[in-house]
Amino acid sequence: MVQKEAKTLLLLKPRGFCAGVVRAIDIVRIALETFGAPIYVRKEIVHNRHVVEDLRRAGAIFVEELDEVPRGARVIFSAHGVSPAVRKDAKERQLQVIDATCPLVTKVHLEAVKFARKSYTIVLIGHKDHDEVIGTLGEAPEATVLVSTPEDVDRLEVQDPERVSFITQTTLSLDETREIVERLKERFPKIQGPAAQDICYATENRQLAVKAVAPLCELLLVVGSQNSSNSRRLVEVCQKDGVPAYLIDDLLEVRPEWLEGVSTVAVTAGASAPENLVEELIESLKEAGYTDLEEMEIKEEDVRFNLPAELVRVQAKTVPPQAAARI
User: Fold this and answer.
1) Is 132 marked active-site?
2) d(CA 54, CA 75)
3) What are the average pLDDT values for consecutive 10-residue runs of the chain, which has 327 residues?
């Protein structure tokens, strides 16, 4: 009897949760444990269907807008950030706000405010209707224009070509963003940008890992939800290198025909995808014959973000001193 040769499974690292996502999910869980249900959350706390369903079962109530939240209730802003108009609305409704905005998104908001105060036209590179972009646009709506492609840059009309700045959504494709920035610099040689790039470390690291593995595999599976911008970019990066890639919520979405004739499959996960979904996918692929497992670590990540002050203060009051010393 001829034994079949084991097929290869390449598991990328880093993958999955970034520091901002860990922080946002922790905020909801700690708020539920501290204050009890219900806790209202404006928009999806992070863009992952499984995460949202788990938190909903734990007692979180997800709403689209603040008018769905009872006056005076406790509400959490999602990791994607909100506009000043939303913050004003929350204050007028006397809501008890816990802000789970990713600190890297907050950085972009502060850049928008800085450039607006200097009377610059702000070019925001991003995807229309994404929650993060909507929040950032709200910081200086009169001064900000949105572009998504180099062609959008060609159509730009600004009040003063010598007073133009740019900022970006944190979850974009590195290559596509670079093309747009280059086109902006061609049109506006004196354009000002952020001191450090706005695309977050996790988005960059996961894309670099995909680029590294693309020449080594015949198929890439990305665990993440369809509304996850950073997850979609991983698929696009791989496809741009000529390798088939698919975005899946979980193992149930894998189609058998994708694996036909494929001896090497690579697996990664977007920054809002839980690791347990990756582990379940790996077990399923092993059963399909991909038993030669290799983990490829491209870059080590050790980023951590602190909890918001409003939660830290409450914890300081409720946690016994000896327990607090261990935190």
Assistant:
1) yes
2) 18
3) 74 98 98 96 98 98 98 98 98 98 98 98 97 98 98 96 98 96 98 96 98 98 98 98 98 98 98 98 97 96 93 72 40
Q: Which two tokens stand for residue 43?
A: 């928009």
Residue 247 CA: distances (Å) to CA of 181, 267, 271:
27, 10, 13
pLDDT tens digits, one per residue of 99-133: 999 999 999 999 999 999 999 999 999 999 999 99
Q: How many CB atoms lie within 10 A of CB 279?
A: 13
Angle, vertex CA 248, rays to CA 243 and CA 252, nearest 5:
120
* Burial grade of 38 (CB within 10 A; 0-12, 13-18, 19 or more): middle
% of residues, the chain, pLDDT over 70: 95
The burial class, CB within 10 Å (0-12 / 13-18 / 19+), for 326 is exposed
Per-residue confidence (pLDDT) for residue 323, from 0 to 100 = 39
Contact 235, 293 (CB under 8 A): no
Q: Which of 132, 151, 260, 294 is catalytic?
A: 132
- Cα dihedral sign for 64, 67, 68, 71? positive
Which strands make up the sheet holding 121-125, listed edge to edge? 144-147, 121-125, 164-168
Contact between residue 267 and residue 9 where contact means Cβ atoms under 8 Å apart: yes
Give the contacts of 228 (CB within 8 A, at least 6 positions apart): 47, 48, 247, 270, 271, 272, 273
Which sign does the torsion angle of CA 106, 172, 165, 135 carry?
A: negative
